[in-house]
Design brief:
The protein is an alpha+beta fold. The chain has 17 helices and 7 strands.
Length: 338
Amino acid sequence: MNHQPTVIASYVKTLTKSLIDLNIKHDTIVPLAWSSASTDSRIPLSQINTFWHSLVSLNADKSLGLKVALNIHNNSFHQLGLLAQQCKNLEEAWKMATQFYRLVSEAGTLSSEITEEHFVLTFEPCKIVPELTVQQMEGMMGAVFQYALSIMEGDFQLYSVELQHPPTSNSSLYHKVFKCPIIFNSRYYRLYIPKSELIKPIPLASESMRKLHLSVTQNKQLEYENLRRPEGDLHFKIYELLRISLPEKIPTLDECATNFHTSASTLKRKLKKSGMCYSDIINQVRKDIAFQLLNDHQLSINDIVYRTGFTCSTNFYRSFKKWSDLTPVEYRKSRAIN
């Protein structure tokens, strides 16, 4: 079975929040699963693309991507965004972005090169049906720049931007988003960054926090590679079943198999063929929910132990230490710093 590209769920959550803030109609076309998805879970890209096509049609506004980019939320880039904030300078931040981009999105590939005068970021959208809308492309590229502008406290500028499509809005909105010349109908989607910008230090960066977030990002990258949950795959369906089962009793392998109208031995064999086992998926569900809930400081650790389906706090602490090299309390404090 071919892998179907996915995007981190935190993206769709911040996207819908932006649409609410902008008072843009979208309620009737948002998939129900989005509201309950863990921020660490993955959403099929085809589902997101379908949403964007419907969104543009519903609102008859071709500049939606640019408007969303201007309303970017800091957690849109998930763990990669946290790491970027702690890099020593913009050159390192951009290199981290290309290295770990797939952790956030499989909507395409992000690559970089250095010319005599510029650092060039190129985004190549993946081929999928339905295809990415031009609004998605403008929103993504605008959001990347706006985020960089945010962590640099306004001290950052682009040399130019290339877009493959014709303009979707007036020049003033493009300038408001990118603050530089735009080249339309190009062969590429590219951001040109003057070399002089690369050496600028990131104002609130911390070396100790950089090491922490780099370690967490690398671990998440490994987990992502080991446990990809593509659309239609058996383990994606199992993941969703287990997630909605919490905080009640997690189904046994037999109960899960019955839910999918198959036998436990057949289910086990299919998972083994994909290099996984049932306990791997249980572990991932618990971990995703734990990381999400620890961001809510109103919840006690005991509440989170219960909601992740652990029978005692000792087992939860032991598992969390394996996931992040931190205790739950240490992880919560690290997030508060940011």
